[in-house]
Amino acid sequence: MKVYLESFGCSASQASAEIMKASIERLGHELLSPGTADQAEIYICNSCTVKYTTEQKILYKLRRMGERGVQVIVSGCMPEVQLEDILHANPEAHILGVNAISRLGELLSSLEQRKKRGLSGGTRLELRTSEPLGFLNVPRERSNPNIHICQISQGCNFACSYCIVKYARGKLHSFPPDEIVEDIRAAVADGCREIWLTSQDDSQYGMDTGVKLPELLRMISEIPGDFKVRIGMMNPFSVLPILDDLVDAFDSDKIFKLLHLPIQSASHSVLKRMNRLHKMDTVDTIIKKFRARFEDLSLFTDIIVGFCDETDEDFRETVEWIQKYRPEKVNISRYSPRPHTKAFSFRNLDSRISVKRSHDLHKICEQIKLESKQAMVGWKGRTFVSKYTETGDVLTRTDSYRPVVIRGSNLKPGQYVDVEIVAAKPGYFLGKLVDN
């Protein structure tokens, strides 16, 4: 059968999509290339429900595909929390639970048998599992052959008032550390040179089992081979209990000095309504400890603007925090009420206020990023060759994950090279090789 898979959302969702693509091809189906959905007999939507705009885009696609007579399978987060919305858009949509990606083959085989019997319709199929299965040590069709996305856990033990993902993915389920190590070891043997550790909150890893993230990082750092590890998002309230051990674990040549610490707001009153279990002095402590150890640390954060009852003063506190700590990257989202969450019943701000605050914060962050990038021109140092770009150039990264593109070279992923940054572009730096 001709199968088109479209994936939305986070890197964990991307990892699931890579596993499902490999399953499709292993069963002998034709995996259609991007932009050819009109040729599909089966449309698989690996869904995301974090934002209303994404949800509406997905529901439109499910409806449109159903009207064209295409068999639709919905995986990812939406079937766990918005099944009624899915079936309203497409009453015949088949469901693959968020924990059940390993069962995609069963679903496709059932649909293929129907096709062979000349049955275009039939009972809607729904496959789920209570525990996450098939996320590690399985074949993948990677988006980039040099990057391996390793999901280290599923779910979350906290309950931010705006977050629907907790309801979609359930309580924290940390995957066994020996299976994670074997998964990464195999990826390195397969040629991957950049490893992304992903989950809903990496610093929660092991809170349910005893082997915490710092110990896992030490185990990963002992894997032989030339590779680097990018650690994903970590919430301040789950970093604090492991802070000293985590900083020590980061002090490995194999770990990028990148701290992705989402604060969402710098206002304590907003954080309280969000049910975020950290204070800003905790955030300050974490950043200062990391920067004291790693002078060239890159800081990423996430901000939600326009949360329920956010005042001008609340927003100003967030702006001042951004201006003080000057993160290299800020993911800005306008608050989007999600069903099933506590905040869904809160009073929302006028959308025009959220739009303006988002615009203003984007301008401030872009100015900070521009100034930081210009300050890096002339920098000389060692970078790690990560992957080839779509244009055939080589993307290298500094120890703090800053991207430096080298044009017209024959470098191989996994090498270390000395470079000089000669120009700053909007999304990366241009560099040239320098002699030792």
Automatic annotation (TrEMBL):
InterPro entries: Elp3/MiaA/NifB-like_rSAM, Methylthiotransferase, Methylthiotransferase_N, Methylthiotransferase_N_sf, MiaB-like_arc_euk, rSAM, rSAM_horseshoe, rSAM_sf. Residues 374-435 form the TRAM domain. Its cofactor is [4Fe-4S] cluster. One of its GO terms (molecular function) is metal ion binding. Its EC number is 2.8.4.5. Signal peptide: none annotated. Pfam families: Radical_SAM, TRAM, UPF0004. Residues 142-374 form the Radical SAM core domain. The keyword Magnesium does not apply. SMART domains: Elp3. It is an enzyme of class 2 (transferase). Gene3D superfamilies: Methylthiotransferase, N-terminal domain, tm_1862 like domain. Binds 1 or 2 [4Fe-4S] cluster. One cluster is coordinated with 3 cysteines and an exchangeable S-adenosyl-L-methionine. It catalyses: N(6)-L-threonylcarbamoyladenosine(37) in tRNA + (sulfur carrier)-SH + AH2 + 2 S-adenosyl-L-methionine = 2-methylsulfanyl-N(6)-L-threonylcarbamoyladenosine(37) in tRNA + (sulfur carrier)-H + 5'-deoxyadenosine + L-methionine + A + S-adenosyl-L-homocysteine + 2 H(+). Catalyzes the methylthiolation of N6-threonylcarbamoyladenosine (t(6)A), leading to the formation of 2-methylthio-N6-threonylcarbamoyladenosine (ms(2)t(6)A) at position 37 in tRNAs that read codons beginning with adenine. NCBIfam families: MiaB-like-B, MiaB/RimO family radical SAM methylthiotransferase. This is tRNA-t(6)A37 methylthiotransferase. It comes from Methanosarcina flavescens.
